């Protein structure tokens, strides 16, 4: 039986009314087309909306009396009473709903394998009942109100005025509790024979093969040595479950997380994992650290459902920054490195750059896995091509497990983190740059600052902007943490006006890179200047003055054409990075960090720039330095004025406890971390 047009059924028909009775009469008269004359059991599957134009009860009864097993499969909103009339007993096993495809096919299989019609495919297959609902669409009449009407009275010459009811008709969907059946059979993969995240592929009832991750060499059952995640880290996987990614893409991402967890985590692992999904809103399905037992964590992933909806990656990132890691701090321990791993194959339908910067501002590392189609967006989100893993074919996603493991445990920040640096960013905020491009500069230097361990003992960061004048946005000693530095960078003012790079460099020399403003003697000093190139004509001499004082200067020139003034400003060729457009700054972050790391290997002169104030003279002495102060000044850096009438200092010289010469008007200092300290 096949469904006819307009909701009708006909024998091999393609339209017309629902004449189920005619079809049944045809079968009674001529038998099954191509049948084997009753030598084998016969079953009839009627697919119908159960709204036949004629009588079917007697005909169905005659078919069943001939020993034919009748299944009635309803479509859309069938007339269930008619389906039950058509179907064989027991009706709950022979009346099925076609829209519930899995239940209909399983119900058919369950009934066939449990009856005398055929033997089950495997002796251990079982038919299991579960509650479901039968739905029907019915038209009902409802009282809508009353209206004046006229009716005839008993007398022929009289009429009667009264109020008559009027009705409206509407269609309602009704559900009736029912029992459905499905058949489950044991398989070769039920025992989960594939180890270390391998995928079991059944081959018949009792054979299988394992699809292993590349890291496990394809050995039998993937029994190669496990990868390990030795670093102390909190990881939140962020899965795209929007309509654009589709159910298949979401299930693939979830399977990747399972494989990663099984392959990388062990009982003694110091890593903790959580999982969140997003479409319109972020849902933290498995909070970071909730499951310490790996099998429990894997089982919890099964409860994460596909949702559909729009792809709001930017909104999800913003919510991750606010509540993605909850209160996952480890008692009595410093906060571990926190990483967000984004898995998506669809472009975002909202803006991502701002929210991604906000995530990084919360000291979170962003990594991303996705298809080649979203590579550019993922690079914008993570801030670096090195933090992005892409694949050409969907099945290639699973080969990224070892690469992700490596990126998680090899901190992506610079290899010169342990080196002390006083770092000043100088941004061109003139009218020739414009506010939009200035905002891209801000984003770039924020991303660069993320690569350094900001604290008073390692890296200090300051920011200067210039346009019609030079302004210190914040000095070296103003902010003691990375988060504070990032917030302050976002608040840097755009000035406008005609810029003078030379004036700005002299401002740094005189008022920023000095001991009284937080600069540390004996520490590498770097100025990174980001400019569009205009207003740099007067900057070559001030830049050389900084370099002669031991301050390294790197010029990042932006624009399609590299101006000659920038070439002169940069001095040595290696101190210049040319970027074609402001939007491309993000792709040159690694080159900038590598340059700073190379500079960090140079020997540092404790007296360059001079730490001595008020024209004091710096003298090197056995790995330390001595400030010889002019008359009227004293202190370690000649910072204190000698008031008239003060008691005179002891005359002569003496050795201080550190072995340095101490005389009136001079101060001998040793700086921590240098010979002699």
UniProtKB/TrEMBL annotation:
<dbReference type="GO" id="GO:0005509">
    <property type="term" value="F:calcium ion binding"/>
</dbReference>
<comment type="subunit">
    <text>Forms monomers and multimers.</text>
</comment>
<dbReference type="Pfam" id="PF00092">
    <property type="entry name" value="VWA"/>
</dbReference>
<feature type="domain" description="EGF-like">
    <location>
        <begin position="186"/>
        <end position="223"/>
    </location>
</feature>
<keyword id="KW-0677">Repeat</keyword>
<dbReference type="GO" id="GO:0007161">
    <property type="term" value="P:calcium-independent cell-matrix adhesion"/>
</dbReference>
<feature type="region of interest" description="Disordered">
    <location>
        <begin position="647"/>
        <end position="677"/>
    </location>
</feature>
<dbReference type="Pfam" id="PF00008">
    <property type="entry name" value="EGF"/>
</dbReference>
<protein>
    <recommendedName>
        <fullName>von Willebrand factor A domain-containing protein 2</fullName>
    </recommendedName>
</protein>
<feature type="domain" description="VWFA">
    <location>
        <begin position="422"/>
        <end position="596"/>
    </location>
</feature>
<dbReference type="GO" id="GO:0005604">
    <property type="term" value="C:basement membrane"/>
</dbReference>
<dbReference type="GO" id="GO:0042802">
    <property type="term" value="F:identical protein binding"/>
</dbReference>
<keyword id="KW-0732">Signal</keyword>
<dbReference type="InterPro" id="IPR001881">
    <property type="entry name" value="EGF-like_Ca-bd_dom"/>
</dbReference>
<feature type="domain" description="EGF-like">
    <location>
        <begin position="603"/>
        <end position="639"/>
    </location>
</feature>
<feature type="disulfide bond">
    <location>
        <begin position="629"/>
        <end position="638"/>
    </location>
</feature>
<dbReference type="InterPro" id="IPR036465">
    <property type="entry name" value="vWFA_dom_sf"/>
</dbReference>
<dbReference type="GO" id="GO:0005615">
    <property type="term" value="C:extracellular space"/>
</dbReference>
<dbReference type="InterPro" id="IPR002035">
    <property type="entry name" value="VWF_A"/>
</dbReference>
<feature type="domain" description="VWFA">
    <location>
        <begin position="234"/>
        <end position="408"/>
    </location>
</feature>
<dbReference type="InterPro" id="IPR050525">
    <property type="entry name" value="ECM_Assembly_Org"/>
</dbReference>
<keyword id="KW-0964">Secreted</keyword>
<keyword id="KW-0245">EGF-like domain</keyword>
<keyword id="KW-1015">Disulfide bond</keyword>
<feature type="domain" description="VWFA">
    <location>
        <begin position="1"/>
        <end position="112"/>
    </location>
</feature>
<dbReference type="InterPro" id="IPR000742">
    <property type="entry name" value="EGF"/>
</dbReference>
């Amino acid at each position: 039986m096949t469904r006819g047009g307009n909701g009708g059924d006909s024998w091999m028909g393609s339209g017309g009314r629902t004449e189920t009775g005619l079809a049944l009469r045809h079968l009674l008269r001529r038998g099954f087309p191509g049948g084997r004359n009753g030598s084998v059991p016969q079953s009839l599957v009627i697919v119908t909306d159960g709204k036949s134009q004629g009588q079917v009860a007697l005909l169905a009864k005659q078919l069943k009396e001939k020993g034919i097993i009748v299944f009635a499969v309803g479509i859309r909103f069938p007339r269930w009473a008619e389906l039950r009339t058509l179907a064989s007993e027991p009706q709950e096993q022979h009346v099925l709903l076609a829209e519930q495809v899995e239940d209909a096919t399983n119900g058919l299989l369950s009934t066939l394998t449990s009856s005398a019609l055929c033997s089950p495919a495997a002796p251990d297959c079982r038919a299991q009942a579960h509650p479901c609902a039968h739905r029907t669409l019915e038209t009902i009449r409802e009282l809508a109100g009353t209206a004046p009407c006229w009716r005839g009275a008993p007398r022929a010459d009289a009429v009667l005025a009264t109020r008559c009811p009027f009705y409206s008709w509407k269609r309602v969907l009704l559900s009736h509790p029912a029992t459905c059946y499905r058949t489950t059979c044991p398989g070769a993969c039920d025992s989960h024979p594939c180890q270390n995240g391998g995928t079991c592929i059944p081959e018949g009832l009792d054979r299988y093969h394992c699809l292993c991750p590349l890291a496990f060499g394809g050995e039998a059952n993937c029994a190669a040595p496990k990868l390990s995640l030795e670093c102390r880290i909190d990881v939140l996987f962020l899965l795209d479950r929007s309509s654009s990614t589709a159910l298949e893409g979401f299930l693939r991402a979830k399977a990747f997380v399972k494989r990663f967890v099984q392959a990388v985590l062990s009982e003694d692992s110091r890593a903790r994992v959580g999982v969140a999904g997003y479409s319109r809103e972020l849902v933290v399905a498995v909070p970071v650290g909730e499951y310490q037992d790996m099998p429990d964590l894997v089982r919890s992933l099964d409860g994460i459902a596909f949702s559909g909806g729009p792809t709001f990656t930017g909104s999800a990132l913003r919510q991750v920054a606010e509540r993605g890691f909850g209160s996952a701090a480890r008692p009595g321990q410093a906060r571990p490195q926190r990483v967000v791993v984004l898995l998506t194959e669809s472009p975002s339908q909202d803006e991502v750059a701002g929210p991604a910067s906000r995530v990084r501002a919360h000291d979170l590392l962003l990594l991303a896995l996705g298809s080649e189609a979203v590579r550019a967006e993922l690079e914008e989100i993570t801030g670096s091509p090195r933090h992005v893993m892409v694949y050409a074919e969907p099945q290639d996603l699973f080969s990224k497990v070892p690469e992700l493991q490596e990126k998680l445990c090899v901190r992506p920040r610079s290899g010169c983190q342990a080196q002390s640096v006083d770092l000043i960013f100088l941004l061109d905020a003139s009218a020739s740059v414009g506010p939009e491009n200035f905002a891209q500069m801000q984003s770039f230097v924020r991303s660069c600052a993320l690569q350094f361990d900001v604290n008073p003992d390692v890296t200090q960061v300051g920011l200067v902007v210039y346009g019609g004048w030079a302004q210190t946005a914040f000095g070296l000693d103003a902010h003691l943490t990375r988060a504070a530095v990032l917030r302050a960078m976002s608040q840097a003012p755009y000035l406008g006006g005609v810029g003078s790079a030379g004036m700005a460099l002299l401002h740094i020399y005189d008022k920023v890179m000095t001991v009284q403003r937080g600069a540390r003697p004996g520490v590498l000093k770097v100025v990174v200047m980001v400019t569009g190139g205009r207003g740099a004509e007067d900057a070559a001499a001030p830049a050389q003055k900084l370099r002669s004082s031991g301050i390294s200067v790197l010029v990042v020139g932006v624009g399609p054409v590299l101006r000659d003034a920038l070439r002169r400003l940069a001095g040595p060729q290696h101190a210049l990075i040319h970027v074609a457009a402001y939007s491309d700054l993000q792709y040159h972050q690694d080159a900038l960090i590598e340059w700073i790391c190379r500079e960090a290997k140079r020997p540092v002169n404790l007296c360059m720039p001079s730490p001595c104030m008020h024209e004091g003279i710096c003298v090197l002495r056995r790995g330390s330095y001595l400030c010889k102060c002019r008359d009227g000044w004293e202190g370690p850096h000649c910072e204190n004025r000698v008031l008239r009438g003060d008691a005179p200092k002891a005359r002569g010289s003496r050795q201080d406890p550190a072995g340095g010469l101490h005389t009136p008007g001079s101060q001998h200092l040793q700086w921590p971390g240098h010979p002699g300290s």
